[in-house]
Amino acid sequence: MKVVSTVAAMQRLALQWKAQGKTVALVPTLGYLHAGHVSLVERARKAVGKKGIVVVSIYVNPTQFAAGEDLSRYPRDLPRDKALCSKAGVDLVFVPTDSEMYPGKAEGSYSTYVSEVNLSKPMEGNSRPGHFRGVATIVAKLLNIVSPDIAVFGAKDFQQAAIIQRMVKDLNFPVKILVAPTVREADGLAMSSRNKYLQGHLRTQALSLWQAIQAAKGTVKAATQPVDAARLKDYLRKFIEQQPDAKVDYVEFFDADTLQPTPTIGRGTQMALAVFIGNTRLIDNATL
Questions:
Q1: Average per-residue pLDDT in the chain?
Q2: Which of 23, 76, 89, 288 is deepest in the core (most CB within 10 A)?
């Protein structure tokens, strides 16, 4: 397994692979990898085959963290990440620095960003201003640097995946986006690098997100007519906040294609929620 840290070296290899007719898949990550990331690598390998190339990028992207968020304390363990990638059969790990990805930014001479203006407005976009500008920018840069035929993202970040798919379509990137299913712990908690923050009773309280999803699914399944979204949101907020350290940021029901809120809920409606468990912000989603 190769490890590359500069944009120039990564682009040289990408050109070599193209010349050799290799199919390349990229799995972009923030690092601190877990079984969910490994499932994305496995999906990438399945897509490109044994003779293809699987690249994992590991980069804690500062432009997608708002002021006051956990950029400085976001969990990092590069030696462990590299070992997991090697075991999973990754061909190359791309680990750039801030100066490689945003040349001149420290001196104020970096000024180009990518913004999607519709799908990025609700939910995470409303709660984390500027977050999706950072996401779209770094993904666009990685697609330009690695030149993959395929890029794999996780369904846990539903809105992010939708925005990336729109960006790729709108800006004519020659890449296929694959969205792999959310991987969960045995008790239902969606796997996340931020789960490391959850200690003791906080880990137990974090299950309230999955329990809320299950409650919403049960409500829709049992309903004989469309369910009122406002009433169910209010119920789920109160349900989650029974946990002493839980604070709901949002619960939303929306159309999966437009991400626009729906006043009534039925089978096929998409659900997403964001909840603070102590100081840790968790997200999850499901199709009802």
A1: 97
A2: 288
In a domain, 156, yes or no: yes
Measured from the Cβ of residue 12, the count of other Cβ atoms closer than 10 Å reads: 12
Judgement on whether residues 46 and 155 belong to the same structural domain of the protein: yes
For residues 155 and 214, membership in a common domain is answered with no
For residue 85, the SS3 value is: helix
- Catalytic positions, written as ranges: 37
Q: Name the residue range of residue 213's domain.
A: 193-287
Question: What is the mean predicted confidence (pLDDT) over 259-271?
Answer: 96
Other CB atoms within 10 Å distance of the CB of residue 60: 18
CA distances from 277 to 51, 123, 211, 216, 248 (A): 44, 18, 14, 20, 9
280 located within any domain: yes
Q: How many residues does the chain have?
A: 288
| Distance between CA atoms of residues 97 and 103, nearest Å | 10
254's tokens = 């929306």
Contact (CB, 8 A) for 165 and 177: yes
**Same-domain pairing of 150 and 273:** no
Last residue of a domain, one of 180, 209, 238: 180
Please classify residue 109 by burial: count the beta carbons closer than 10 Å to its beta carbon, then call 0-12 exposed, 13-18 middle and 19+ buried: exposed
Do 142 and 47 lie in one domain? The reply is yes
Q: Count Cα neighbours of 78 within 13 Å in the Cβ-side half-sphere.
A: 12
Pairing of strands 264-265, 280-287: unpaired
Q: With contact defined as beta carbons under 8 Å apart, do 236 and 178 qualify?
A: no
Residue 67: which pLDDT band, with cuts at 50, 70 and 90?
A: confident
Strand partners, 265: 227
Condensed to tens digits (0 to 9), the pLDDT of residues 214-239 reads 999 999 999 999 999 999 999 999 99
